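Record 1 of the preview.
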Amino acid sequence: MNGPAAPKDPEKKRPYFYIMRDKEIFGSKWEDGRGIQFLYQDSGRLISSAQIVGNIEDEELLKLLETVEGFRKVVHSIGVSVETEDPKEQVEFIFQMYGKNDLYGGGTNLTATFPGDGAEKRIYLADADWQVDDHVPGQIKILMETPEKLAKASVRFYLNDGFTAPEVCEEQNVDVNGLPYKKMIEKSLIQTGNTYRIYRAIRQARLGEDVTLAYIGGSITQGAGATPINTECYAYKSYERFCEIVGKKENVHFVKAGVGGTPSELGMIRFDRDVLRDGVQPDIVVVEFAVNDEGDETKGDCYESLVRKILKLPNHPAVILLFSVFADDGNLQDRLIPVGLRYDLPMVSVKNAVVPEFYEKEHRILTKNQFFYDMFHPSNLGHTIMADCLANLYRETIKAVEEKSIVDSDYRAELFDGKPAIGCTFDDIRLLDKKDGFEKAVIDCGGFTQTDTVLQSVEMDLNLDLTPEFPYNWMYDGAVSKEAYFEMKITCKALVMVFKDSGEVDAAKAEVYVDGTWVRTADPYVNGWLHTNPLLIFAESETKERTVRIEISEGDEDKKCTILGFGYVE
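->
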């Protein structure tokens, strides 16, 4: 009988820091039938996680994490643990480095397979076959055998000699029923505004009449950071809060139309298609673009135009302006609040509620690590806080009307009298694509004869299945066509092109001309990921016929380019 093999000597104890700790994940159904969770680390996300979760303040160390070269200098090994419902379930972990020339295919993959029993598995960087195209830490993928199940994941970096990390701090659970939490939520209310439209929806819901709550915004409204994304997102949670407040649910309906990485410049174009689909007439619309609109080329004109577009709907819905926040404490509420003041709208600032708590020393009830999933998106708790902020607005509206007898009148008659706060250039913008035409637009597709099916896709409403954005598009494929242009004669005064961004090596740039004059380059690598990007072509005061020509940039004729659609104002 053989005795047990001698155990290895214990490894040298190394300092470490977490980039995620007991993070809730959800395995969306993947192509091979397994569940997958993507955790993006590029564009500053890894550094933010090191700061927020790992409490790293060393600027030199943080700077090194920006590149694969620096990452290898800092990190000795990666400790990974995943806890699934079935501890015997096999989990595959992949930390993908992005390539410089081939973004998704050129970098090293650090991989490990292990049971989902919560035990840590170490990945040693010295064992990896590093690639010459390695550029930046890209994304983490966690694959689980069973899809659509919750799990918890932790990832920590053990450091090479010469680097140190602070001790891991324990956090107190957030008491969402306590008075300090309630006081924090109350700070989110900027103003109830004119209560007429919201209270009308509340009264109709109480009476059993059909009422629809709709949400339009960016990735936070899509539900990013929430696991599962469909039921743990702030949108659905706030819908549930509304149903609890009015005491009804069967007659209260839910529409969610969030698209990641997109500003109100795109929201105003897709509003009719994504929110008003199937004849929906929303009674309350929550608008959430306060952390997305840095990309709004009009610096607020598009945002106000979207708000006005909604207010002008035949059924006169209530519009709520919701201001979310990034992990750097930033948002654009100072730019957008004047729009709410101009139309006396209810406004809710998540920033006002949570940011003071992050820096409270003695009686802090919430940390950044608890609120944020990553540098851009809230965790499940963060989404709960956002939902509670909206619920506070509903309760304060009821209190104002029923307890304080503040009865506002319907102000639709004078709502648009006077000047806008920022601008109203795009109030009447409409979508033009292969499906929705325009009689004053004559299109010569040139070589843009194909239809792109590799599109940014999102979870709409309560669905976990993905809905592709702008499926009725025009795609140029240099392998099929050599007519490297698209031309349109259109009579309008403003035009926005919706263009597909990409990180693939075969994506082409395009040059945009109006009446023979070059206007701009449409570059799919500006954002560098599969993304729906609005590009302002022109905005003039006069409606007239213009010729818009889009030509594939010289040298890119053998690649691919997709025009997803246009937004036009007659």
